[in-house]
User: What shape does this take?
Amino acid sequence: MNRALKTTIRLGMTASVLIALILPLTAHAADKVQVYDTYQDEVKGIELYSVSQLNGDHFDAAVIARQADGSYAKWQEPFHSFVQDGSGLLRLSGYDDPEQSYVYDVKKETIIRKTPYTVSPDGKWGYLERSRYLFVPGVKPYSGHVAKIRDYYLKNMQTRAVSIYNSTERRFDAFWLNGHTLLENGYLETAKQNVIRTYDPATGERKELLKGSLYNWNRAKGILLYVKNEPQRLPWIYDLKTGTSRLLDGNSEMKALFPYTTPPLVSKLPQEIAVNELPVIQVPVLQEDEYFVNVDGTSIGIPAAFAKEGATWLPVKPLAAALGWNLRLQPQESSYKAADYRYELAGSSASLVLTPSNSFITGGRMYLTREQLKQMGYSSIVLTPNLDY
Assistant: This one.
């Protein structure tokens, strides 16, 4: 084989390899749009899609809205997705950080900063779960660890009072059963095993139903699917009305009693759309504060306030901005800042040092108590709920 022919073959192979490498990227650059959720109201002409699309080496995520003229546009930053969570609002973000919790109100066609609670069937109570991370010191010779703590909030929808009624790093779930009764399932430290209970927030009364783990439930039929705390892990049916249990009669009965159905995802979005090329529309954004606190005559809107262990906790950031505090992180010895942070709050007449032992952090936000506000030199502190929240 002569040199010219060998060179031609090598060039041809090189070109083939380059084409093989380039073609997948070129194909994916115009990949189809992946639709994760949709909201459509034909009467009001609302058509929204939560989507993503592969664009080269990254994904473009967006909320796409159909315009009155039939064209499509995407929402402004930083709103890239939504999910429908059954509250009647579209959830745009997580709820761990009250200052960055956003929903879309389809009636007002507006993005609102607020945290919607899961309201009980009788409308009297609201339920909310938030997660936070806490440094837990170890006992020698073991070092400490960072634990994920789940806090469970209850809101009295009549008085608007909010409190943390349970905190745990163990598995725990709660659902509205009927009226305003919560069905709880999780590990109970005193029993050293998983327990299924009911809880009435109006009276504080708990009732143990079963020792075991909840797998599913059917509110309409008033039955639970659970397994006992035993090695066999057999599926049982518990009747809430009679308080009796029986073994599940196979998969066919499970499908009949606990059907898993999801509505089909209907999308009218053209697949040839390039998400990164869509024009941006500015959706109105409103802020709804859950409470107002009046500090010596200065009214301040705050995104959250709650009771925990007998104290009322208020967010530091909006108070500092309104009252002109200086916030400074003092030098720390530990390499892990969350373990021994010391934040100095300096006001016009007094200062206060917040540490892990006298403050509360959730969603990356710090909270102090009403009593600590008084230590800062303020005498009148009046907390008022936003009745329209």
Q: What stands out?
A: The longest strand covers residues 205-218. Confidence is low (pLDDT under 50) at residues 1-29.
